[in-house]
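Q: Hi! First time doing this. I have a protein sequence and I read that you can turn it into a structure. Is that right? Here it is:
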Amino acid sequence: MSVIPDTDDSTRTAAVGVRVFDRNMDIQPGATPTTSDPTTSGRPHPEPVGLTSVSLGTGPLSIDEVVAVARHGARIDLDGEALDDVAASRRIIEALASDPEPHYGISTGFGALATTFIEPARRSQLQASLVRSHAAGSGDVVEREVVRSLMTLRLSTLMTGRTGVRVETVRAYAAMLNADITPVVREYGSLGCSGDLAPLAHCALAVMGEGEVTDSYGRRRPAADALADAGLVPVQLAEKEGLALINGTDGMLGMLALAVDDLRMLLRTADVAAAMSVEGLLGTDAVFAADLQALRPQSGQAESAANLRLLLDGSPIVASHRGPECTRVQDAYSLRCAPQVHGAARDTVDHAAMVAERELASAVDNPVLTPDGRVESNGNFHGAPVAYVLDFLAIAVADVASMSERRTDRFLDRSRSNGLPPFLAHEVGVDSGLMIAQYTAAGIVSELKRLAHPVSVDSIPSSAMQEDHVSMGWAAARKLRRAIDGLSRVLAIEVMTAARGLDLRGPLEPAVGTGAVLRRVREQVTGPGPDRFLSPEIEAVTALVQSGGVVRAVTGAVGDLR
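A: Yes, that's right. Below is the predicted 3D structure, encoded as structure tokens:
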């Protein structure tokens, strides 16, 4: 596959699907966001955030680099020295291919046919047949950013020189990514062992010029047509290459990297929402004092408490009830213990990031080419390390959302809201206020609890009992993506509810940080008043949360959150 000439990225468009957070574009005031089918609907390709290009060599990618390519369209550059290593490893494979002794995956069949010698003239067909048969996915089409992440990670492994592929095959993957051509990968098909076989096979099939892709304009098309229009030539696979393109944890790992990026932003948003709720419910900030938090030296807790102190600093609302006339002894746990829960979630994300970074430094293939020229079978394709932390994150997501929903509920109950009208209604008895918004949050939280059930313990045997224990890491990643989407919506409902509560505390003013968020929310939805169509307002604030707009509002007012 030849590389097309450089083009102006601003002329390209791409589809964006459900559960994809676009943090490149702020929501316009009054806009109602929509979601779209990632295979049929196009929109302007966002300008890359931060990194505009990523160099791939023999070393590992960072999480930020994966996100830059997968989510923000950063260009891939291939390191020349690493390409030399790829070429050197290919010469070893070619020598083994000419050996009269059979070598697995090079001059033999696969699985039960591992001892069957394949004539040289049939080996290209063997590799192509492997890809075609393994491209057996079913269900909805996977989001563009997920497919780009798994292709980027497979390319990173190919660049280690441990897989034995040809330089032209490596260049083909990079060219396809840079042309913004995305293979159509379907949701079901991977058991997470031997890696994400079916999703990776769909990508390899597209590089061969077969199957379907989504082009840079968001149109679903035959792969051969999209490649031709981009000036790219399909690859004819040689010995070992089919195996090298489909054995890896790249799908689950790509989704883990994207989840870490999302959750780092959402946990800051959770601190913002909690601060708005503490303020709007006439809670106290005294419990967030640094010396009290230091009594329990959990790092995530300290970061969350520091955020709450920054957000509530100088709040006239908090100051209004700080005197001896205040009879409330302690706030409810959902207010008082926010740093403990949000902090524990942060620590879980940090652990997941550590596992992801180790996996990003891995060369996962089977068989693998060793530095001394051996071709050895191994079990590194098993996704257990990644699957476990994907499940851990789903638990943390459910708990953070659960606490957020409890704070929302307190605003609506006049016996617990400290003087606010029932359901924050404009005319009690006529208006329902935000009653059903809380129902929506509660329904999502209930689903998140179900999604927190681990799938990594649910192994199921396959391949005639050869693959008798599998990781289910892909499934863990898919449900985590849905859980993250749910968390963003629950936090949006809390932000929207707390904003109305702060309005109703007037003429008292909120703190500088929370006040900046209140003003940003009011650019999207109006304040207290008679009942109105609520769903578009929830969607607008959700888009603000998912875009990182809530966090940016704080950053612009009081500085960076931790």
